[in-house]
Specification:
- The structure is a single chain.
- This protein is α+β, with helices and mostly antiparallel strands and 756 residues long.
- It is built from 20 helices and 28 strands.
- It is globular.
- Residues 1-7 have low confidence and may be disordered.
Length: 756
């Protein structure tokens, strides 16, 4: 692998420059979704269902409409009833009609908190009063919350027109099972018949929320000429434009979406909830409208990730070779189809080279908010089951848990169960570095236990655009097409600086709106540093080629005799008395050599390399309360090449922190009426700094991605995949029995310890 187009030792990539947007964010100057204010702007509020499942008989908004200060009221009739088709969103596609139904219900409400109407008024208090005045007549229907209950014969049906896909012949009766996903290979029954040892178990996880600090927020303004603008906190301005335009039946060219700073997303902001509603209100009243969710609304009506039920069974020889496995995964989709169960099937055994596999997944709707992506969607649950079973296998065989994984680790050339060929994988190196780490070699104190788990994520590429503009004084502006969530401004600027041969201080990156830069997929799938970074590098290479051309013209020499290095053009023609030309020198006379110096590139990036992670978790349990305390944690990952190592370390630490919370504390708790009972950060227990130790990281750069000019692999999603199992394995070792149901709350742990 070469060091990109520049060759030799890298000077910017791999360094740790200060975050370019950091000062504005810590001083409060950065503009987030709720910070925008326009003249004449109205306050919006949304009326939400108190029922988990009910038919909407009538909506009477007359009293609200007559309230002084109310300027507009919308319901689902204000959306385009003919909206159809799908839009690419993150790792999958989303159906326009279902997104519209989720934004404003028509016909039925499908969960507590489902939006039914919205108001725009001159003051927030008036809007809140108007919401109370809207009278909705409901016919309550039976509801179903949990995945197995929703799959059972005779369960209340959410959709009369939902027939299970993936079943042949097509069923003649509707069902809550939206999809049956089947994949596999080899002779699984034969593997179990000849196995020396078999482990099996049922594993369950609760639905959990991404927990971003900034709630969903937007400002929408419908122009008198039909040209409209939306300012919003999202993971993809182009995705928002597509969804809003289709839901409201307007051309894409009539809508501009401006991305605000984003206070967290983790996949949860790869769809829309407020934006179509706010623009529909603005269209009715002709004034800008702001909508901001409360924290309770975020929990009630924006997508958590799926809860799950999984059965896993693994066959192995006595020396630890895994010969076969089978697995059933059932994931909650919430009110509409679209759980990440297919991704769960694809990733479950992706770390291991297993000849015989059989997996079946079920996408199941129930009366909960529709799920959204959450960092490696579907993979953490599947890994919890598989990595717990592998830990159980290691204990049965008396093998070191890392040695067992090394024996079965996937290597280049292996085939995945979904058909891809493994390339540039450093899973073996990651396992070896963890085994050699000081953490793994440190003996445990009495009462402590150590859990090990591995995880995988594909990483993706896709469509991205970027531009590089050279200023008159030789500085450079990079225009990225993706909202900056994990530090992509810095990584884009660093790759451009490396390619151009400039110090990072001379390069700045901005985020373009939908009218200022070419189309790009969303910030998700661990794709931005790889795909948009590739576009940035190619645009910078075009600029270098143009600079060399201009230098050759200035010197009157052949272009082939011009070299570009360290931000300077040099003439290799000994017959020319040509002094080196800096970028500033060339830019200052650009008008005489062809005009402004700039380049824009749009690509469909291919060749994203998968990532692998291995986590270690040491913890102890208070025998009186059952509270688990993580005392040491290490996250190691195959990162290709770390463009900005500090940001990569932050991704590993953040994913581990979220996964620890998922394992120990977090869950949606529902009452008998289908009401979410812990819709606040007080009752929904996320870990805070005092709950966690310093999370150590190991960046494995053994196998840079040869398809990227600087070797980058996506790093944002792998870190949340291993923690669930790493934590559960450690708890299981202390408790003395296999803990199979997350979260591992103190009450569950105490009960298990009492049985022992």
């Amino acid at each position: 692998m070469s060091d990109g187009n520049q060759g030799g030792k890298l000077k910017v990539v791999g360094q740790r420059p200060i975050r370019p947007d950091g000062v504005d964010k810590v001083t409060g100057r950065a503009q987030f979704g709720a910070d925008f204010h326009l003249p004449g702007m109205l306050a919006g509020r949304i009326k939400r269902s108190p029922h988990a499942h009910a038919r909407i008989v009538k909506i009477d908004a007359s009293a609200a409409a007559s309230l002084p200060g109310v300027k507009a009221i919308v319901t689902s009739v204000d959306f385009d009833r003919g909206a159809s088709g799908e839009v690419e969103a993150g790792e999958g596609h989303t159906a326009i009609r279902e997104v519209a139904e989720n934004c404003l219900a028509s016909g039925k409400v499908l969960y507590v908190g489902h939006a039914v109407a919205a108001v725009a008024a001159t003051h927030p208090e008036i809007a809140a009063e108007a919401i109370d005045l809207i009278e909705v007549t409901y016919e309550a229907l039976p509801h179903v919350i949990d995945v197995e209950e929703a799959m059972a014969p005779g369960a209340p049906l959410l959709h009369a027109d939902l027939f299970t896909k993936g079943v042949n012949p097509k069923p003649d009766k509707p069902s809550n099972i939206a999809l049956k996903s089947v994949m596999g290979r080899g002779d699984v029954p034969g593997a179990f018949k000849s196995a020396d040892v078999i482990v099996e178990g049922r594993y369950t996880t609760a639905a959990v929320h991404q927990g971003y600090i900034e709630p969903h927020a937007c400002v929408a303004s419908w122009g008198a000429d039909g040209q409209s603008t939306v300012w919003c906190s999202s993971q993809g301005q182009f995705l928002v434009r597509a969804l809003v335009a289709k839901i409201l039946g307007m051309p894409l060219s009539d809508l501009k979406v401006i991305p605000a700073e984003i206070g967290g997303g983790f996949g949860g902001k790869t769809t829309v909830y407020l934006e179509p509603v706010a623009l529909a209100l603005s269209r009715k009243c002709g004034r800008p409208v702001k909508l901001v969710m409360s924290r309770e609304e975020v929990f009630l009506a924006s997508g958590p990730t799926s809860g799950s039920v999984m059965d896993v069974k693994i066959a192995a020889t006595k020396d630890g070779k895994i010969t076969g496995a089978e697995m059933m995964l059932a994931y909650q989709a919430g009110a509409f189809p679209g759980s990440p169960v297919h991704l769960g099937c694809m990733t479950a055994f992706a770390c291991y080279d297993v000849e015989n596999l059989a997996l079946v997944g079920y996408d199941v709707v129930s009366n909960r908010p529709k799920v959204a992506a959450y960092r490696a969607p579907g993979a953490p649950m599947a890994a919890f089951a598989v990595e717990s079973a592998i830990d159980e296998l290691a204990r049965k065989l008396g093998m070191d848990p890392i040695d067992l994984r090394l024996k079965n680790a996937v290597r280049d050339g292996a085939k995945t169960v979904y058909g891809a060929t493994v390339k540039s994988a450093a899973f073996v190196e990651t396992l070896e570095m963890v085994k050699a780490s000081a953490h793994y070699k440190t003996p445990l104190a009495k009462g402590q236990a150590r859990g090990v788990a591995a995880g995988f994520w594909f990483n993706i590429g896709g469509e991205s655009s970027a531009a590089v503009h050279v200023d008159e004084d030789g500085g450079v502006t990079v225009v990225s097409s993706n909202p900056d969530i994990g530090g992509s401004r810095a990584s884009m600027a660093m790759m451009a600086a490396e390619t151009l041969g400039l110090p990072i201080e001379r390069v700045r990156c901005i985020i373009g709106d939908t009218a200022s830069i070419g189309y790009s997929g969303s910030t998700g799938g661990s794709r931005v540093t790889f795909a948009t970074g590739m576009a940035v590098v190619q645009a910078a290479e075009k600029v270098v080629a143009d600079l060399k051309r201009r230098a050759a013209e200035t010197w009157g020499c052949d272009l082939a005799m011009v070299e570009w290095a360290d931000g300077v053009a040099k003439c290799a023609d000994p017959s020319k008395d040509a002094k080196p030309l800096s970028m500033k020198a060339i830019a200052s006379r650009s008008a005489k050599t062809g005009g402004p110096i700039a380049a824009e590139v749009s690509i469909n990036a291919q060749g994203a390399a998968a990532g692998y992670g291995v986590h270690l978790c040491d913890l102890e349990i208070d025998p009186e309360t059952g509270r688990s305390t993580v005392i040491r944690y290490t996250a190691a990952q195959d990162v290709g090449r770390a463009i900005h190592p500090a940001y990569v370390e932050g991704q590993l630490q953040g994913g581990a922190a979220q996964g620890i919370g998922w394992a120990l504390n977090e869950e949606y708790v529902y009452g008998k009426s289908g009401q979410l009972e812990n819709a606040s950060f007080l009752d929904y227990r996320m870990p805070v700094a005092s709950d966690l130790p310093m999370i150590d990281t190991i960046l494995v750069e053994a196998r840079p991605n040869p398809r990227h000019p600087y070797g980058a692999k996506g790093v944002g999603e792998v870190p949340i995949v291993p923690p669930l199992a790493a934590v559960a394995n450690a708890v299981s070792h202390i408790v003395g029995e296999r803990m199979t149901s997350l979260p591992l709350s103190p009450a569950k742990v105490l009960a298990a310890m009492a049985k022992r």
